[in-house]
Structure formats: C-alpha cells, structure tokens
Amino acid sequence: MELRDYTWPLFHYLFVPTMMSAQTLSVSRSPAPAPLPEHLEIGFRTHLLSVVAIAIAFILLLVLAVRIAFLSEVFPWYALLAIPGGMMLADFMSGMVHWSADTWGSESMPILGKRLLHPFRVHHVNPADFLRRRFADTNGEVAWLTIPLLCVAFLIPLTSNLSVTAAVFVTSFLGIGLMTNQIHQWAHMRRAPMGIRQLQQLRLILSHEDHETHHRPPYVQSYCITTGWCNRPLAAINFYPRLERFITWLTGIQPRKDDEAFHQEVFHGTVHITASPQPNVESGGRGQMYSSAPCMLSETLHISQGAAEYR
Ligand SMILES: [Zn+2]
Ligand SMILES: [Zn+2]
User: Fold this and answer.
1) Which residues surround ligand 1, an ion (CB under 5 A)?
2) What is the DSSP string of 250-292?
3) Which end of the chain is less enclosed by CB atoms within 10 A, N or C?
4) Which of 84, 104, 103 is nearest to 229 (CA)?
5) Could you say which DSSP state residue 141 is in?
6) How confident is the model over 83-116, as pLDDT tens digits?
7) What is the distance in A from the centroid of ligand 2 to the CA of 98?
8) How far is the CA of 269 from the centre of ligand 1 (A)?
9) Interval between CA 5 and ligand 2 midpoint (Å)
C-alpha cells in the first residue's frame, strides 16, 4: 500500500462534507418512506474552519499539559485528583447544556436555535443521523468555544500547590469537554474504534449502554454525555425534574414544549426534509437507536410504518 492510500481517506473524512441535494428527493423510489429530519449540512468553508479550530484547540491543550508537566515549580500529589474532578465537572456541564437544549427554548430562535437546539431535536427523532456527521462537523463548534477558555487557562500561575492543582483541574475539564460531542458519537456506535471501546468499558467515557437510557421517550434522564458519571447521582436526587419545576414556577414556561411539537410534527404532521433519503441500512424503530456502522458511513433511518413504530 502506498502512503496515498492512507492519506486520501483521512483527507476525505476531514474535509469533504456529505453533500446531499434536496433535488434527489424527486428521483427517490416510489412509494418512498418519509425521510426523518437530518442534521443541517455545513459547507466546505465551515468544514475547513472547524478543522482549523480543532487543530488549534488540540495544540493549545497539548502545550497547556506540557507547561504543567515541565514548568510547574511544585506538583503536589493531590493535583492528580483534579483530573477526575475536571472530568466530573465537564460531565455535569455537558448534562446542563444537553438538558437546557432539550427542555427549553425554540429551534426558531436566532443562532442558538439553528446551531444548538435543532441538532438536539433531530437527534431524538433520528439518532443514527449523528453517525453521518464527520469528525470536523461533530467537534468544530465545541473547539471554537473551548479555544478562548484554553487561552485563559495559560494565565494560571504554576507557582503554588493550589494554583498548580487548579491548572490541572482546568486542563482536565477543557480536555474532556473538548471531546464531548465525539464521545457522544462514539457512544452511538455498536462498534466504537479500537481503544475507545476499552475506555467505555472502563467507564472513563460515556458508554453505549449508559447513553441508551437517554434515548427512551420522553428523554428526561441521563443527559450527561461526557463520562456519564453524574447521571446516576443526579437521577437519585431527582435533579432535573426539581430544577424544571422551579423554573416553571418562576417563569410559567412549560418544559419540552418545543421538543414535543417537533416530535409531533415529524411523526404526525409535516416532516422536515433537509436532505435526500438514503438506502435504508437498518430499520428505524426507536428501540434501534444505534448503528453498527462507523460514523463515516452515510446513513439515514426511515419511518417505514409511520409514527406507531416509534411509540
Ligand atoms: Zn437529548
Ligand atoms: Zn445521543
């Protein structure tokens, strides 16, 4: 095998977005099952910017870790405990962002609606679509959000036990936080890449089995998608329902109105068609949220028997 045989698939995976034209709908087989909504495609420029953001974020993270390892004037043993501490906080924050997006707001909101809420709406009704997203598409936005925080982390002095521990905590938090969407995508694969499955089995990152509990209607549990460590403790104290009741009491806004409306529209009304239907590679029952295919394979689930199949 030549070097090109290895580099071209990598280049294609990183840089070439999945292009699907709505026009191809007109030539799909008839009678065709209604396609589920899909993640909005990003253009080549956005894809390229995402690759750049991911590269910058990982370089900053690496330099930050090297700085702590070699330039710290002290390094107390308990600074190592800050690593799981940072991972725990990242998991909790992933749960808060996920819960907020699932529960409040409308996908018609400017910017946030399109880039944050809509993907979560689509993810509930068509979870396998997540596997269609490429690495840069999956991780680019989190990388852009993480870069400023990584820059701020360089301001933490490495001169005392406390500040070094804080630097380790922040680096751990940002490092695992940077990977949140990727970890979430791996959790949707039946066969995660080599090494990742072992991390999942060790419960160092969110596992396939742990995340499955979130994809059961009405999608009100296991919001944490980084390590999954916070899911059980938060469920034990009824954290999200209590918070929702408090917010509803405070504002009068009912939770999940937009998500329920989206679900209703998809399965009982107009279907959002954002891309052409692809050959059905697996059946589309809600209970079958996962695909055995790796994420670079383009795939789409279909409603084959209407809404009843998803109940
Ligand atoms: Zn969700
Ligand atoms: Zn998911």
Assistant:
1) 102, 219
2) HH-PPTTHHHHHHHHHHHHS-----S------S---TT---BS
3) N
4) 84
5) H
6) 999 999 999 999 999 999 999 988 888 888 887 8
7) 10
8) 21
9) 32
